[in-house]
Amino acid sequence: MPDWVTTMASILLNISALLGVFLTIFALISVLERKILGRMQNRYGPNRVGPFGLFQPVADGIKMLIKEDVVPARADKVVHFLAPILVAATAILTLGVIPYGRNMTPFAIDGGILFFFAVGSTTELAVFMAGWGSNNKFSMLGAMRAIAQMVSYELPLILTTLPVVMVVGALSPDAIVSAQGGYWFGILPHWFVTTPWGAAAFILFFVSGLVESNRTPFDVPEGESEIVAGHMTEYSGFKYATFFLAEYFGMFAISGLAVTLFLGGWHAPIAVLEFIPSYVWFFLKLSALLFVYIWVRGTLPRTRVDQIMNFAWKFMLPMAFTCIIAAAVWHYQGRGLAGWLWSLAVIAIIYQTLSRLLETKKKFAPRTYRFAE
Amino acid sequence: MNSVAFLAIAIITLSGALAAATLPKLIHAALSLVIVFVGVAAYFFLLGAEFVGLVQIFVYIGAVAVLIVFTILLTRRDSVNDRGVNWGGVIVALAVFGGLLWIILNTTSLALPAPQTEPLTVKQIGESLMTNYVWPLQCVGLVLTVALIGALILVMEEKRER
Amino acid sequence: MNATLQLFLIISSALFSIGLLATLSRRHAIFILIGIELMLAAANLNFIVFWRFGSQQQQPTGVMVAIFSIAIAAAEAAVGLALVIAIYRHYRTTNVDKFDSLKG
What we know:
Order of helices and strands of chain A: HHHHHHHEEHHHHHH
CATH superfamily of the largest domain in chain B: NADH-ubiquinone/plastoquinone oxidoreductase chain 6, subunit NuoJ
Number of strands of chain B: 0
Distance between the termini of chain B: 65 Å
Number of helices of chain A: 13
Radius of gyration of chain A: 22 Å
CATH architecture of the largest domain in chain B: Up-down Bundle
Number of domains of chain B: 2
CATH topology of the largest domain in chain B: Four Helix Bundle (Hemerythrin (Met), subunit A)
Oligomer: heterotrimer
Largest sheet of chain B: none
Structural class of chain A: mainly alpha
Strand order of the largest sheet of chain A: 1-2
Radius of gyration of chain B: 20 Å
Helix content of chain B: over 70%
Strand content of chain B: under 5%
Helix content of chain A: 55-70%
Number of strands of chain A: 2
Shape of chain B: globular
């Protein structure tokens, strides 16, 4: 067989495996999310199609596919058409650099983390294209909101990966995962989330990930009660389904990166359980994180735009810088117990100072209405 | 170096560049500019400079392109169409291209293939950034900070004295 | 056929000329900035090409220059676009032919 045939075959195999696995997870999560949310709100959730409502995604898919594809008459046709494609393409590309198991990285390059963020930042442009191409005020407003919050939270997102990159000394996800192998006393894993800076960075990363994937406490870009569906207002049928899919794929990618960076990737939590295949551990951790996403959605109300922005620039960004400093302290104190305590002290002091400084003297009081009296 | 990839990237990049330079609608031009950036990044990948290609995509598409479209939105009132073309500029550009082409084609020493080498790793780049190039790095940091502050001051509201 | 240095230089000179065309022939300030970005991209391409076709790949000089020039280009774009916005606020236009008075 010639060389290029094997190369092409391995590329196609990689792509089809990736798409197959994540399309299945997407179908599952779309029904499970509704069921879990339903349980949290004291109702059943979808339970009509198939056993336990498990065939609900099939019904949804058929409904989406046979819907009429409406394009507004005054829309910018080309841009309107290209936006969902670009969103989905970037979401799938970012999934490619995550190590799913031992030697199971579809696209292993030296600068994998950089690739993730470089491709991920293209989403902003795609969202803008959707907003602009629809030629609709709601779409444009939603796109502006989405870009504003994505740009603001991209900074903490990237800055919280920096401590991990610094400590490991490599930008490739595989190196980061293998640096987290091994156990203390055979039980405590060497995951970065077990260090103070790692735990803080993980929380910040998770919150930024919530914003980047426009999930519930931060879903103002598509707040139904204000701006219909944000940048997706003028999309229908399959294009809308593509946006939906891309949003979930982005969520998988961010959670997958969080697992890789902080939760030890495909390593088992205790040494005894290492006989279970590595990819099982990865997908278990991924589903745990996805459950937290759904849990957060079922628990927290939507925040305001100005609250989101203030939180990003006044709290998230300083805390992300603190994580870098704490990681450096941890490293120079010998990566042992002393480093652990010192970095905890750094984070605690900065956290206390920040919360003192940011405390508004506003007490909770009955709401006053200025304009709608 | 793969000549098929070279040709494909060349067609995409140059047609994107032509579209960016000649399309009447500003927003289409800005989006074509993104195609050019992707094409140039693809060339960087082809030439074995993966890191620069990734930085190119990250900085240009994630930051510069978004800045450009934001500016287009903020100055939207008269920016829908760009009327009138300065033909003098077209002639100058063509003359420059002709001159460059003539020089490049007449320099026979340029017709050399790429030497075979080891690809440059991110670690090597990082090490030289922190050793030989640490002063330029600090200076770039300073320039970026100054540019940030300068841009902020420029777009602050003008005080109306009336 | 393998891509030679000559072919790469032709591509980058074409990119540069198209950028020059946009800068010199359009009247909208943002088009001029787009042209400048095109020319900078051509210059970056040249840095990398000469590094790759040179004899010392293990000295990452071309890569470093390209990284720094990308950073400078980002700063340039930010300041340039801020200037466009400031001028637009003052003159209510972005046509560079209208910016002809020395005093606001």
